[in-house]
Specification:
This protein is of the alpha+beta class and about 190 residues long. Helices cover about 25% and strands about 10% of the residues. Strand 4 and strand 5 form a beta hairpin. The N terminus and C terminus are likely disordered.
Length: about 190
Amino acid sequence: MAGIGVAAGLGAGCWINKHGPSSRKPLLRPPGALPEDDLLAECIRCALCIEACPWDTLKLAGFEAGLGVGTPYLVARRMPCYLCEKYDELKCIEACPTNALSEVPDRKSVRMGVAVVDEKRCSAFIGSFCKACAEACPISGAIVLDDNRRPIVNEKVCVGCGICDHVCPTEPSSIIIRPASIGDQAPEQVS
């Protein structure tokens, strides 16, 4: 049965190479993911990265992902990427049989995306005290509190793991993770 999935994945990869990239809403990809067009071409849709994830963070994209069907993604609000904090390596990258998820020198070098604070919704910006995102962030200096105790994201340090989005007490979240695949486009809530 697994052979059928791999064969279908290989066929989808060939089709993607021929027909171009997906025009669907960008997905938040796992650590080490190639740029979107390259990921779509390299990923064989084997789901080994999803099986390897110790936190059940990664999901398999459905037909709504267009050409990205069968590729790994995550929704940080539901379950962020914990960067395999208790392991020596990032399990998804280790499991990938292709170059779709490439090695990264260390966890601070991961670039899944970047956190963006919605100042109109964030409790700290509208008068309440909250530092949940800054306290939960696993990357030193990615989210710091300014002199008024409001969260400020250092885009050069943020890895886009989504832990801040996951712990944000507002509903919807005051922090959105802008996937690396959308570059400088305006962030959207990815659900």
